[in-house]
Specification:
The complex is a heterodimer of chains A (114) and B (118). Chain A is built from no helices and eleven strands. By secondary structure, chain A is mainly beta. Chain B starts with a strand and ends with a strand. In chain B, the strands form three sheets. In chain B, strands 2, 5, 6, 10, 11 and 12 form a six-stranded mixed β-sheet that branches. Chain B has a four-stranded antiparallel β-sheet with strand order 3-9-8-7, with no helix packed on it. A two-stranded antiparallel sheet of chain B has the order 1-4. The mean pLDDT of chain B is 90. Chain B contains no helices and twelve strands. The chains are: A mainly beta (114), B mainly beta (118). Chains A and B meet through strand 4, strand 5, strand 9 and strand 10 of A and strand 5, strand 6 and strand 11 of B.
């Protein structure tokens, strides 16, 4: 079945450590997105990519980095510069880059500080 | 800037009651898209509906219905005869356009947590 796979489901980060969250989709979607969700909050956009080898910062990109070397993959690295990384991270993809396409979401990764 | 407001943080109803979740949005775009998503306790977001700004026709899907009114910038969601399985957080979202600084990524409201008790 087509879908978005995020891994791991749970992740723990030590102080000063970079960690990478994986996001893979087999929907042949062009656009991919990373969102952060804090308790009681909506989703906030970290980064998005509309095409391979291109990505743009979202509203809260500081302390994060991404790459888009393949159409199906959009990994997110939470760097040591992100001082408050504890959150639920959701990856999404959409068929086109026009706003009328619904985004499909993965199951998320919960990141915590050790 | 674009903004989505869901003023109801939490709603609690008894099974079989009808419930309406409010969504008010702000945008400078003349063409935009509105969405509703459901987030059950498991965490994944499930797409429920999409509405184009130029289509104000209300929509009904089973027990779900949506009322889109451009005059009041609202896109409200009603669940008729609620069930325990409807318990979840519901998000309203707006897709950007010409005046968005995030391409066509979604701008989410903070969500409304719905609890349906037996």
């Amino acid at each position: 079945d087509g879908g978005i796979t995020q891994s791991p489901k749970y992740l723990f980060r030590k102080e000063g450590q970079n960690v990478t969250l994986s996001c893979e989709q087999n929907l042949n979607h062009d656009a991919m997105y990373w969102y952060r969700q804090d308790p009681g909050q909506g989703l906030r956009l970290i980064y998005y990519s509309q095409i391979v080898n291109d990505f743009q910062k979202g509203d809260i990109a500081e302390g994060y980095s991404v790459s888009r070397e393949k159409k199906e993959s959009f990994p997110l690295t939470v760097t040591s510069a992100q001082k408050n990384p504890t959150a639920f991270y959701l990856c999404a993809s959409s068929k086109g880059t026009i706003g009328n396409q619904p985004q499909h979401f993965g199951d998320g990764t919960r990141l915590s500080i050790l | 800037a674009q903004k989505v407001t869901q003023a109801q943080t939490e709603i609690s109803v008894v099974e079989k009651e009808d419930v309406t979740l409010d969504c008010v949005y702000e945008t400078r775009d003349t063409t935009y898209y509105l969405f509703w998503y459901k987030q059950p306790p498991s965490g994944e977001l499930v797409f429920l509906i999409r509405r184009n700004s130029f289509d104000e026709q209300n929509e009904i899907s089973g027990r779900y219905s949506w009322n889109f009114q451009k005059s009041t910038s609202s896109f409200n969601f009603t669940i008729t005869a609620s069930q325990v399985v409807d318990s979840a957080v519901y998000f309203c979202a707006l897709s950007g356009g010409l005046y968005s600084n995030s391409g066509y990524a979604l701008n989410f409201g903070k969500g409304t947590s719905l609890l349906v008790t037996p």
